[in-house]
């Protein structure tokens, strides 16, 4: 497995703020740009607009660098800045009101029939990706930041302005809903082969499949 060395974001930030180091700014941009765009898309659902928002955030950081010397976690600061700019974009260009609501327990099953009959693992990953996208917005963001970006509960809590306990709750709610979707998929695809598997055991087995894929890896 190829090991990719992550840049020291804090060191780059200090060189930007204290030394006006343009090279460090370029390295910071390349290190976080793609992740910030993906994060922004969670909110506004438009990649081109997300690219502009993230670009504007970086430009403002460069222009205000002398006032940002006290930032101790620049990565979290940038994620929060992008989130805030996303909210401003939604308020300006749409009638969408960003609110935190409790979603119902209903889960919409997504048809993932694959005419090419891909391998089961690829089909499962595709199903999960669609299922993650169908989660409530905050649960989806929490799940992706922790799993895909490797962030800690505390970091995600700071970005979303919620408690670490809420982050943990959202993550396990997401896991629960994803396991329901997977169980429905397994029932529909295998009922013709074996209908004797008790549903509680099926749900438990699906949960551990989910856990293995996302937190251990296949």
Automatic annotation (TrEMBL):
<dbReference type="InterPro" id="IPR013249">
    <property type="entry name" value="RNA_pol_sigma70_r4_t2"/>
</dbReference>
<keyword id="KW-0805">Transcription regulation</keyword>
<keyword id="KW-0804">Transcription</keyword>
<dbReference type="GO" id="GO:0006352">
    <property type="term" value="P:DNA-templated transcription initiation"/>
</dbReference>
<dbReference type="InterPro" id="IPR013324">
    <property type="entry name" value="RNA_pol_sigma_r3/r4-like"/>
</dbReference>
<dbReference type="InterPro" id="IPR014327">
    <property type="entry name" value="RNA_pol_sigma70_bacteroid"/>
</dbReference>
<protein>
    <submittedName>
        <fullName>ECF RNA polymerase sigma-E factor</fullName>
    </submittedName>
</protein>
<dbReference type="Pfam" id="PF08281">
    <property type="entry name" value="Sigma70_r4_2"/>
</dbReference>
<dbReference type="InterPro" id="IPR036388">
    <property type="entry name" value="WH-like_DNA-bd_sf"/>
</dbReference>
<dbReference type="GO" id="GO:0016987">
    <property type="term" value="F:sigma factor activity"/>
</dbReference>
<dbReference type="InterPro" id="IPR039425">
    <property type="entry name" value="RNA_pol_sigma-70-like"/>
</dbReference>
<dbReference type="InterPro" id="IPR000792">
    <property type="entry name" value="Tscrpt_reg_LuxR_C"/>
</dbReference>
<dbReference type="InterPro" id="IPR013325">
    <property type="entry name" value="RNA_pol_sigma_r2"/>
</dbReference>
<dbReference type="InterPro" id="IPR014284">
    <property type="entry name" value="RNA_pol_sigma-70_dom"/>
</dbReference>
<comment type="similarity">
    <text>Belongs to the sigma-70 factor family. ECF subfamily.</text>
</comment>
<keyword id="KW-0731">Sigma factor</keyword>
<dbReference type="InterPro" id="IPR007627">
    <property type="entry name" value="RNA_pol_sigma70_r2"/>
</dbReference>
<dbReference type="GO" id="GO:0003677">
    <property type="term" value="F:DNA binding"/>
</dbReference>
<dbReference type="Pfam" id="PF04542">
    <property type="entry name" value="Sigma70_r2"/>
</dbReference>
């Amino acid at each position: 497995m190829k090991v990719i060395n992550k840049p020291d974001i804090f060191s780059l930030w200090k060189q930007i703020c204290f030394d006006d180091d343009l090279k460090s700014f370029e390295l910071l941009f390349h290190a976080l740009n793609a992740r910030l765009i993906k994060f922004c898309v969670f909110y506004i659902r438009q990649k081109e607009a997300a690219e502009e928002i993230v670009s504007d955030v970086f430009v403002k950081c460069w222009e205000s660098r002398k006032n940002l010397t006290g930032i101790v976690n620049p990565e979290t600061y940038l994620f929060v800045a992008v989130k805030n700019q996303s909210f401003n974009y939604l308020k300006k260009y749409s009638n969408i009101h960003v609110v935190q609501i409790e979603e119902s327990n209903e889960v919409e099953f997504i048809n993932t029939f694959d005419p090419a009959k891909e391998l089961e693992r690829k089909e499962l990953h595709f199903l999960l990706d669609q299922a993650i996208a169908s989660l409530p917005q905050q649960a989806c963001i929490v799940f992706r930041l922790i799993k895909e970006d490797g962030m800690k509960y505390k970091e995600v809590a700071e970005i979303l302005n919620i408690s670490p306990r809420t982050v943990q709750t959202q993550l396990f709610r997401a896991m629960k809903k994803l396991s329901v979707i997977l169980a429905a998929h397994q029932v529909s695809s295998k009922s013709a082969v074996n209908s004797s598997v008790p549903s509680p055991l099926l749900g438990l087995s699906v949960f551990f499949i989910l856990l293995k894929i996302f937190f251990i890896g296949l």
